[in-house]
Every structure is written in structure tokens, then in C-alpha cells.
Write a structure and sequence with these properties.
alpha+beta
Length: 438
């Protein structure tokens, strides 16, 4: 029996079709341009971060190619079938399960936040009636965007009213090549970041869009909400592609499906299903208000702390841990310490080391980074002295080591051991530890 053509039925169908299409497009464009299988990217990182609640054996089992890659290659097919038969509960459950395996393994390696909204929507569509799932999807969009803005205020404070934060980000990414994560238009990026007026406007527009405009869109009629939400996010991602990082801009293409389902939900203010959106939004905001901390970075939860640092924080962090000759490194415990060992960092497409090579691992973009924030690590940073001679690297290093040894979540894949030790070191021009500072 054919489904009646109505917005509640079309909403999920459009989401499944868009999600399948954008995933296949992303896989194809990366395959064509780099020769890399996008789904195998999770195997390009030697260190991963497992959820605290998932035993190591179960986590490593899900990472097996026979499990993970099967889930990856079957997920687009399951999404296509779900778009064809959105009323089939078993198909929707299958898509949600496959999406969960993919999201868990991929995000544990890349630390990407792209797929969390898709994950939440897959389970909402699997377990709820269509209109209630659309209400949740709208709440997911609000949570995703507003949490990013809230993290900016929580971490960077009023400095985000600029100029400063985005100028520091664009300057850092502007030094990268296109293939390493640089901007789609280096000339446009330089032109914008060299203009104080442009940077001040971009800082304020970004923050206000995330913390005010998108939450306010909840109270708009569906057509206006779609224009503000979907249209605004597409403009945001285009800006990221042109001015900041082309790769990041392309990698977030699959999120168009989430924006379409959530911001395009056919829910009027006051509808019973509409209340699912503010309830979900208030849960995430309420957690931050009551605990005075961000949501934990612990799959399937994330604070969506995307580029939350102020300009001065960004520069101090990068000067201390990225741009200079000093690094904070992690290891599984070394008999003779890290001196003379190679430091393995993380690139946007992964990193590698020989199986028989003794190495240590850069903590940047694992425990802390451009878009990575763990509450305990954030609280351990003294931003008043970071980047100056007054900063105490020994105290911070001890806090990081305590987190590593207590939670045992950061795993070296070649040995299946948890990284439990931390050192603050100086590296030579070849990337080897030249001096142990703390």
C-alpha cells in the first residue's frame, strides 16, 4: 500500500535519501581526488580514544575490518532502502545500528564531530513516529549549533565578540596547503583576515548566529525556519571552505541531511511534537548551567566545542604545543623515558609509525585541540600564564598524566595498551625528543 504524500512522510524519506547521497558523494570525491578510501580513514591513526563505558575488548572487536568496514559499506545501502521504505521499522533500526558502529569507530580515531547529529537522528527515526522524530531532529540541530556557540562563550568568553578568535584560526589554517587542510581560496582568506573590520564582523556574526539566531528560529514558521537554519548553515560551511579549510568544508557536506530534516520539520510552534525540540535543547543547556562544565567528550556525548578558543588562548596553545619546539607527549610507559624517541603527531588525514619503532604520541588534537576539549584538561590550563615564562609545565603535565592513568581511554592500537604517561618535551628539527622538560 502506497504511503500518502504528506510532509511527515516526506521528511524522513528526504533525510535518508540525502544522507545516502551525500555520503556517497563524499566517498567518491575523496577517492577521486586522493585515491583514499574515506571509510578506511579510521585505520590511519595509531592512537584512538574509546568511550569510558565500553570495555576495551568490545571496542577493539568493533574496530575489526570485518565488522567496521562491513558497517561502513552497508550503511549507504541501508539508507537508500530506508528512503524507499521509510515505514519499515526493521530497516530504520538496521540503519541506526550500522550508523552507530561507523560513528563510534570513526570518531574515536579522527575525533570528528560531524556524524553525531546523524547518529542521533537515525535513532530518533528508528524509535519514534515520524513527526516526533522531526521534533527531535529540530532539537538536534539546535543542540549542535547552539552548543558550539555556548562552548565559545564558556571557553573563550567575551573575547569572542572580537576581533581575535577567527583571525587566529584563519592565520593558522592559511599557512597550510590545500591538501593539508588549508583554505579553498588563500587569497580571499588573507584578504579577510588582514581586515580588522571584516574579522570583527565575522567573529560577532558567527557567535550571534549560533547562540541567538538559531535558537530563535525555533519559534519561526517552518518555511522561515528552514531558510534561517539550512540557509545559514550552508553559508557557514561555504565560508569555512573558502576562508579556513577546504577539507573541513567538504567533510561536513553530509550534515546537509540533518539540517534539512531538523530545520525543515513541518512543525508549528505549540504542536505537541514541537515541544521535543526545546526540551532536548534545554537538557543540553541545563547540564552546562547546573554543572558549570561542558558536556563530556565521551561518545555518544560531545560538547561540540568547535573552535571555541579566544584569539589569545588559541595563540598561547599553539605557541606552546604546536608551533614551537615544545610538545606534550603520551606513552604507554617507557623504561628509559622518551628521550631520543620520535614524536608521532596527528594530521588531518592521520599519521603512522612502524610497528617495531619506539615512539611517543603528541597529545594535541587527542586530549586537547582545535575542536577537542575534555573538561578536566581544560580546567588544568592556566591561561593567565600559558605562553609565558611563569607557566608551570610540570603541574599541567601531572594533571594530564592523572587523567590518562585514571581513565585509560587513549589506546595505542599496535599494542592495544592504554597510554598512561605524559611528558613535556623539546623536540629537534627531525621531530625527535631532544630534552625532557617535565
Amino acid at each position: 500500500m502506497a504511503l500518502p504524500v504528506s510532509f511527515p512522510a516526506v521528511g524522513p524519506r528526504r533525510f535518508f535519501a540525502l544522507q545516502a547521497g551525500t555520503w556517497l558523494f563524499l566517498w567518491a570525491i575523496i577517492r577521486i581526488t586522493s585515491g583514499v578510501d574515506f571509510f578506511r580513514q579510521a585505520y590511519s591513526f595509531p592512537v584512538v580514544t574509546r568511550p569510558s563505558w565500553l570495555p576495551l575488548r568490545a571496542f577493539l572487536f568493533l574496530r575489526r575490518p570485518g565488522i567496521y568496514l562491513t558497517a561502513c559499506y552497508c550503511l549507504p545501502l541501508a539508507l537508500v532502502v530506508a528512503a524507499w521504505q521509510p515505514s519499515a521499522v526493521s530497516v530504520r533500526l538496521c540503519a541506526a545500528l550500522l550508523g552507530s558502529i561507523y560513528s563510534l569507530v570513526e570518531s574515536s580515531a579522527t575525533n570528528s564531530h560531524r556524524d553525531y547529529p546523524m547518529l542521533y537522528n537515525l535513532w530518533a527515526l528508528a524509535l519514534l513516529p515520524p513527526r516526533w522524530a522531526e521534533g527531535v531532529a529540530l532539537g538536534v540541530c539546535l543542540h549542535f549549533v547552539a552548543s558550539s556557540g555556548l562552548a565559545k562563550l564558556y571557553i573563550g568568553g567575551l573575547e569572542w565578540l572580537g576581533p581575535g578568535p577567527l583571525e587566529s584560526v584563519l592565520r593558522t589554517y592559511g599557512d597550510l596547503s590545500f591538501s593539508s587542510g588549508g583554505p579553498g581560496s588563500p587569497k580571499m582568506s588573507k584578504l579577510v583576515r588582514d581586515s580588522p573590520l571584516s574579522m570583527s564582523l565575522l567573529d560577532r556574526m558567527t557567535l550571534l548566529y549560533e547562540v541567538l539566531v538559531v535558537p530563535a528560529a525555533l519559534f519561526l514558521p517552518p518555511s522561515a525556519r528552514l531558510a534561517v537554519g539550512l540557509g545559514g548553515m550552508i553559508c557557514l560551511h561555504l565560508g569555512i571552505y573558502v576562508f579556513q579549510s577546504a577539507i573541513i568544508g567538504v567533510f561536513f557536506i553530509p550534515n546537509v541531511a540533518t539540517y534539512t530534516l531538523g530545520f525543515g520539520s513541518n512543525l508549528e510552534v505549540g504542536d505537541a511534537e514541537w515541544y521535543a525540540s526545546p526540551c532536548l535543547f534545554c537538557l543540553s543547556i541545563g547540564y552546562v548551567a547546573l554543572t558549570r562544565s561542558l558536556l563530556p567528550e565521551n561518545w555518544p556525548l560531545t560538547p561540540f566545542a568547535l573552535f571555541g578558543w579566544s584569539g589569545s588562548q588559541w595563540d598561547a596553545l599553539h605557541d606552546t604545543f604546536v608551533r614551537s619546539e615544545t610538545r606534550l607527549v603520551m606513552s604507554a610507559g617507557l623504561m628509559n623515558g622518551p628521550l631520543g624517541l620520535k614524536v608521532v603527531g596527528r594530521g588531518i588525514r592521520g599519521s603512522s609509525c612502524a610497528d617495531d619503532e619506539d615512539v611517543v604520541y603528541d597529545f594535541w588534537d587527542v586530549l586537547l585541540g582545535d575542536t577537542m576539549v575534555h573538561n578536566d584538561i581544560l580546567r588544568a590550563i592556566d591561561f593567565e600564564t600559558l605562553g609565558s615564562p611563569l607557566w608551570d609545565p610540570a603541574s599541567f603535565t601531572r594533571r594530564v598524566e592523572t587523567w590518562l592513568s585514571t581513565h585509560r581511554r587513549v589506546i595505542e592500537l599496535r599494542s592495544s595498551r592504554a597510554l598512561v604517561s605524559a611528558n613535556f618535551v623539546r623536540v629537534d628539527d627531525r621531530g625527535f625528543v631532544d630534552e625532557v622538560i617535565a
